[in-house]
Amino acid sequence: MPYDIWLVVIPTIEIVILWFVIYRILVFFEGTRAIQVLKGITYLMIAFIVAQYLGFSTLNWLLTKFFGISIVALLIIFQEELRQGLARLGQQHLFDFSLEESEIMAVIEEITSAAYKLARQKVGCLIALERETKLQTYIDSGISVDGKVSAELLQSIFMPHSPMHDGGVITRGQRIVAAACLFPLSDNPNFNKILGTRHRAALGITEQTDALVIMVSEESGEISVASDGRFIPIVNRDRLINILKSILLVEKKRKKK
């Protein structure tokens, strides 16, 4: 009888270990370009298994040689992502707990208030809200803040005399994680050449991640929201709040389902 129980316990332990290892690998690559390569390798592995099963000897030989070369190539190409992944590997939590609806609304209100106060003074700002894709690469390029999201703190960061006013702010949940962060510039050929670097940065980070960006133009004082590589025009305060609610609260409901 104890032997029969052990036959059940061993596979269970193995499944738990495999689940944990696969999960940590995904966390390791999360928020980097390497996650896309990992998806590509997964597809190739599926093709390799199918080729073996169907007896395609030529494809099997080509894929075997490709996997042997690709390991070295990936280590060279993605050495920066691997370094950053290792640096944050021990900082990840096993499970993420999302904010409650009231907490999301509080963050939206604070960011909206800050954006309109800065817009009235024609002070430029760039605020990126981290969603599912981790923005650690961009956080590391800035100055650590780790303060609760508030209109007053955001205003003080972006005031011209502040040493952190250049670059963007990144929020994670209810916290401002970092300021003076460097965002990638959009290389979209259809980008309006009249718009400046702040617009290109707002668009650029939403092209490479699922971040939601709130931007105030220093020249015109206009407020814009960038999402999925496009700008959403803002005509008034209610419009900004409704857009942020429609994206963040709908996402929360989707996660619950």
Written description of the protein model:
The chain is of the alpha+beta class and 257 residues long. The protein has 2 domains: 2-91, no CATH class; 101-256, DNA integrity scanning protein, DisA, N-terminal domain (YojJ-like (1, 3-Layer(aba) Sandwich). Helix content is 56%, strand content 14%. It has 9 helices and 7 strands. It has helices at residues 2-29, 34-54, 57-77, 79-88, 101-120, 136-139, 151-158, 197-208, 237-256; strands at 125-129, 143-148, 168-172, 175-181, 212-216, 223-227, 230-233. The protein has a 7-stranded mixed β-sheet with strand order 2-4-3-1-5-6-7, sandwiched between helices. β3 (168-172) and β4 form a beta hairpin. The longest helix has 28 residues, at 2-29. The two termini are 41 Å apart.
